[in-house]
Amino acid sequence: MGYAAWIVGVVQFFVVHTMVESAWTRPYSWARNNISDLGNARCALQSDPEPRYVCSPEHGMMNASFVVLGVLLVVGVVLTGSAVWRRGKVAVAARILLAGAGAGFVLAGLAPADVNENQHVLGALLIMGTGNIGLVLAGFGLAERVGPPLRWGTGLLGVTAITALALFLAHHYLGLGMGGMERVAAFPLLLWALVAGARGLVGAIVRMPVRVIPQGPTSRAGTR
Question: Which contacts (CB < 8 Å, 24+ apart) does range 163-171 have?
Fold first, then answer.
C-alpha cells in the first residue's frame, strides 16, 4: 500500500499538471513559468522572480492535486517500513524529512502563491529543502535489499536537487529558465518516489506466495 501510494500520488500529479497547463489561453511554459503558477487563483502579471502573465483557469484542480500528492507521499513514508528502510537514526531522519516534503505539498495546495505567499513559500521550502536533504539521507538509510543502484541513485538525486535549488535561489538558471531550474530542484523527489514505489510494488508481487489448491483423489467406478 505504501508503494502504491507513492505511484498514484506522482502519476496523478503529472496527469493533472498536463491537464491544467493545457487549459491556459496563453501557452504555459515549463521554462518561463513556476509550478506554482498553475495553482494561482487570480489572473495577473507576476514580477517575482521573473515577469510573466499568470492565468490558470483550472487552478482549483492543481491545488487539489498538490494536496493529494502530499498526503500520499506521507502515507508511503509511513507504510514502507523495514522492507525499505534500515534501522537507525539516519533512516528515521530521512523519513521525517521526506514526510516534511509531503506536508509542504499539502501546504502549497492549501495556500496558493497569490493568496498566502508566506505559507506557500514555506511549503516550497519544505518540498525543495527538507525533502531534498531527506533524499540525500535516504541514500544511506535505505535497506540493503533495495540494492546499490537505487541507494546510490537516491543520494545523487538529492545532491542534484539541492544544487539546483541553490542555483534557482541565486537566479542562475543555466539556460533552463526559471521554471526549468525549479523543476530540477523539485522533480527528483517525485522521480525517486515513482521509481522506488514501482520497484517495491513489482518486487512485492513477485515475492507473493502462490496458493496451490490441492486436488483430491479421483474416484473410479468399479465393475462386478
Answer: 165/128, 165/129, 165/132, 171/49
Note whether 130 and 100 are within 8 A (CB).
yes
DSSP state of 111: S
101 close to 126: Cβ distance less than 8 angstroms: yes
pLDDT of residue 16: 97
Q: Is the pLDDT of residue 222 over 60?
A: no
Counting beta carbons within 10 angstroms of the beta carbon of residue 53, is it exposed (0 to 12), middle (13 to 18) or buried (19 or more)? middle
Q: Whole-model pTM?
A: 0.86
Give CA–CA dist 124/59, Å, rounded.
17
Q: Which stretches of the chain are DSSP H helices?
A: 2-22, 59-79, 89-110, 117-125, 131-141, 148-169, 177-207
How far apart, in whole angstroms, are the C-alpha atoms of residue 75 and residue 52? 36
C-alpha cell at 128: 525543495
Q: For residue 217, which amino acid is it? A: P
Domain boundaries, the chain: 2-203
Residue 21, amino acid: E
Residue 44 has φ and ψ, to the nearest 5°, of -165, 160
The 10s digit of each residue's pLDDT in 56-74 is: 999 999 999 999 999 999 9
